[in-house]
Design a protein that fits this description.
elongated, alpha/beta, Helicase, Ruva Protein, domain 3, 16 strands, 505 residues, Rossmann fold, 41% helix, single chain, disordered C terminus
């Protein structure tokens, strides 16, 4: 039964249904594909958001989806992991009617005006207009199945029930002894199969018959079952070689193959992460995440998607950036609770404790395995810092050369370190002490205020640290790990003359 109660004005019997607007054209016995098309046309005319929460696909994927639905086609979304394939499929039910009538008690949601199963046909013949009608909400008309090698024809289509055959004294060839699988039970709805190549070829042949012939065979008994379905699929290109393939006849009958992709811009990627990450948390601690730090999170994924250490055929899911943002916020939250602070900001050094979000989310090639997953993760963060620094700040090398003897903006900082001084910081320092240590560096506090979007005072120490880390990643400053697990920024030249084994790569 439906978990939602239908409105009381909907007809409850077949007679009342025939007399209502539901029993007349164009609503009467409309196929699910026509239903999707009609409702999509209304949504297009009304300019409503078709796929809310899907970012970066407005000019690429969504037009192709609209075309396939308007053409009443089955389609497959083909793309790497974390490209919103399942999320898109789960929103298709929004283009179905809010309520759908079906004969009460029918396992395959039979149309009251055109029943398929023999039991419903007899019920209508015997009771006529008194047959009870149930109303199914559109959410219940979408079902999906994750394809795995152990999925059987019985799971998807059904099997012969010998107990039912014996009790009712029916032949095994009688459709009434069939125990229906998930596909017939989704009749007059949308059925999605995720990771299609994982299905065994013989199971895919069964889907081929559903799509094309409407004929299914159960244990050698042909059963004509003209189901009314919109079938959609998703697949990862990697699966074609690693785990299976889509048989050619089935692929030929899937009318549209839509290639998904990762967000093309950092702005679109940030929208996805902000939407999915758990940022606003209870507990009495407010964690401020500066805008450029959110950008840095996305830049880590950008670096991973072009790194020679990462297997690009596997992709880098947006789940990595979601997990990374949540972890660096958690690290800042933990620090604030430990020091009794009610408000704090995320730091660049918090990324060191967010490495776990990266190492488990990227597949490495041989060279990456040789380097080690932790080293690769730190390398990706470092590259992201360097690229983001170039976006906001003038080039540290060119600023020196361009000056022709004049002091550059970085000179006060570099001169301070050239005197043999160093600054030690860690992700565990209270905010005030963290700020005080960074403030020792001449010229460091004012520089990021000129170039970074620093909105409030709590963000200033993070901006100062970002400059030091970027200068290190640009090979201008050295960074070493101390005995207390803190990080010390020092002059590059003095470090090279000192103990190179202490330098932090």
């Amino acid at each position: 039964m439906s978990y939602r109660k239908p409105p009381t004005d909907l007809p409850a019997t077949l007679g009342a249904f025939r007399a209502s607007r539901w029993g007349r054209a164009p609503l009467a016995s409309r196929s699910v594909r026509d239903e999707l098309r009609a409702n999509l046309l209304v949504a297009l005319r009304d300019r409503v958001a078709l796929f809310p929460g899907i970012h970066g696909y407005d000019d690429t994927i969504i037009p192709q989806l609209i075309n396939a639905l308007l053409a009443r086609q089955d389609f497959i979304l083909l793309g790497l992991r974390g490209q919103a394939k399942t999320r898109i499929l789960r929103q298709l039910f929004r283009f179905l009617d809010e309520w759908m009538p079906a004969i009460e008690g029918c396992e395959i949601n039979d149309d009251p005006l055109n029943p398929l199963c023999p039991a419903c046909q007899r019920k209508v013949a015997m009771h006529g207009d008194e047959v009870a009608i149930r109303w199914i909400p559109r959410q219940e008309r979408y079902r999906e199945k994750l394809a795995t090698p152990d999925v059987t024809i019985a799971d998807l289509i059904g099997d012969i029930d010998p107990i039912k055959a014996a009790n009712q004294k029916l032949s095994y060839s009688d459709p009434e002894v069939m125990h229906y699988g998930i596909i017939p039970r989704t009749n007059r709805g949308i059925f999605a199969i995720n990771e299609l190549p994982d299905l065994q070829p013989r199971i895919q042949v069964g889907l081929l018959n559903i799509l094309e012939e409407k004929d299914i065979q159960i244990r050698g008994f042909p059963i004509r079952l003209p189901l009314d379905l919109q079938i959609v699929f998703s697949a990862n290109p990697e699966d074609y070689t690693n785990r299976g393939n889509i048989i050619t006849p089935l692929r030929d009958r899937i009318a549209s193959q839509i290639m998904t992709h990762y967000p093309f811009t950092v702005e679109d990627a940030m929208k996805v992460t902000d939407q999915e990450a758990w940022v606003k948390r209870p507990g009495g601690v407010e964690v401020v995440v500066p805008a450029y730090i959110r950008e840095l999170v996305e830049m880590v994924a950008v670096q991973a998607r072009k790194s020679s250490y990462v297997d690009q055929s596997s992709g880098v899911s947006v789940r990595m950036t979601i997990s990374l943002l949540e972890n660096i916020i958690s690290n800042a939250e933990r620090r604030a609770i430990r020091h009794g602070e009610r408000r704090t900001a995320v730091r660049v050094c918090d990324f060191q404790n967010g490495i776990a979000s990266i190492t488990g989310k990227v597949e490495l090639v041989y060279e990456g395995e040789q380097e080690g997953s932790v080293s690769v993760a730190k390398h990706l963060v470092g590259k992201a810092v360097k690229d983001l620094f170039v976006k906001y700040f003038p080039d540290a090398y060119k600023a020196k050369e361009k000056g022709e003897g004049k002091a550059s903006e970085y000179d006060p900082i570099l001169r301070w370190f050239a005197q043999g001084k160093k600054v030690e910081i860690s992700d565990d320092l209270p905010t005030r002490e963290f700020h005080q240590r960074l403030s020792q560096v001449a010229g460091l506090e004012e520089l990021p205020k000129r170039y970074l979007p620093v909105k409030e005072s709590v963000e200033v120490p993070t901006a100062m640290e970002f400059v030091l880390e970027a200068l290190h990643q640009s090979s201008i400053l050295a960074k070493e790990r101390t005995d207390t697990a803190a990080l010390a920024y020092t002059d590059m030249f003095s470090t090279m003359l000192g103990k190179p084994e202490e330098a932090d790569d």
